[in-house]
Amino acid sequence: MPTPEEAAGLVIEPPVTTSVPPGQGVVHGLAYDAGGRRLLDGIDLDIQAEKFTVIMGPNGAGKSLFLRLLHGLIEPSAGSIHWGGKSLDDQVRRQQSLVFQRPVLLRRSVAANLEFVLNLRGRVDPAAVRAILRHVGLEAQAGQPARLLSGGEQQRLALARALALKPRVLFLDEPTASLDPASTAAIERLVGEANQRGTTVVFVTHDGGQARRLADEVIFLHRGRLLEQTPATRFFDRPTSSEAADYLAGRLVF
Amino acid sequence: MQDFSQAFRLAFELVFSADADLLEIIVLSLRVSLTAVAIACVIGLPLGAAIAMGRFRGRNATIILLNALMGLPPVVVGLLVYLMLSNAGPLGWMQLLYTPMAMIVAQTVLITPIVAALSREVIEQLHNEYAEQFRSLCVPTSKAIRALLWDGRYSLLTVLLAGFGRAVAEVGAVIIVGGNIDHLTRVMTTAIALETSKGDLGLALALGLVLLVLALSVNAAVMALRLTATRHAYA
Lengths: 254, 235
Fold this sequence. Notes:
Chain A is of the alpha/beta class. Chain A has ten helices and ten strands.
């Protein structure tokens, strides 16, 4: 009997053995300028393959910008990003997916949104579409216009669309920022399962509780600089920077 | 006043008796304008999409030019097409002047900028919304254009209706290149102009009524499309 994930076709094939796993990211000397200001500066870090990495930091720290750079949606002003030992190009990006804070759904039905992305990677199997929608609890809404779904359902569809591509790396930019607790739990469960299946997850959140629940490792950004990259338990118990300590204590960080 | 009432009576009689001359003129008008709209779509929609999605030097100037061309005076278009198609013109060998084809060419020239400029606006708005997601998914340009055209279908249909409304109601271009020849190139607008100048208000009014009904139908269709789009959350 196949598992629900196998039935939904979400199980990732094991990577071809190379020296660097495809889900491992290496960032070196990363900087980004816009409008005459340096918004990110001197970021060096490694993102461990198949781990759950959470990016935290106060508003304006550059978290979403960093995520877009990691996925190659924008070009850095300086420095480099490699995934699986390769520079970021379309071939590498096809092994990645990004879920935005506000889901961008096509003006089509729920099933057609899923078919669109599956069609990008090959033939669309209606049974696979149904299985994926069942997996994320949207099978009954398959024929509905996607934009008529609730916020939580829209985000689940966006996540289903991202997972349907079987990404090695899954980026999420505050995907539960405007969702109720039940919808948040559903998203966390689906992302957690993907991580268990071997997908590297890079997750931006402001929610400390959520980060505690999910993270293997925490990256803390402040004013465009990397202040901490530590295992989650250590970050929450003994943050090394005063900015991170203030942030966790709910104090304003300037 | 008696003349007017007689004219109205005659007009209604012509319409409701399905007068053969009247029907011939209406059918030709629709054939010319619908063909012009179809050709304008084939040229205008991809052009609008390319300008909406492209980033090239002179893009803003192109948009300004395209927007300006939406206001092309029909008589000027008629004159230019006449010069091109007349025996002394570069396309004179095609012998199209004073044929329905010449009228189709003139209306196509008139409405292609409308279709291209308005579809550019529709597609650019949608593209701005989808661009980052499409980049993330590595959607090839051809598939992106098809997706934008499909997802913008309701708005684009209103663009086509706007083009049709402009084409079917114009008189200046088709009278110059068509010549308003009875049973050959006489369409509703040119017939109205001629019959009015002759004082035959009955036929002119009958054709005017048909044009008004067409204009109302086009606007009703636009409204219905917008309501449908909103109801299905595609807007």
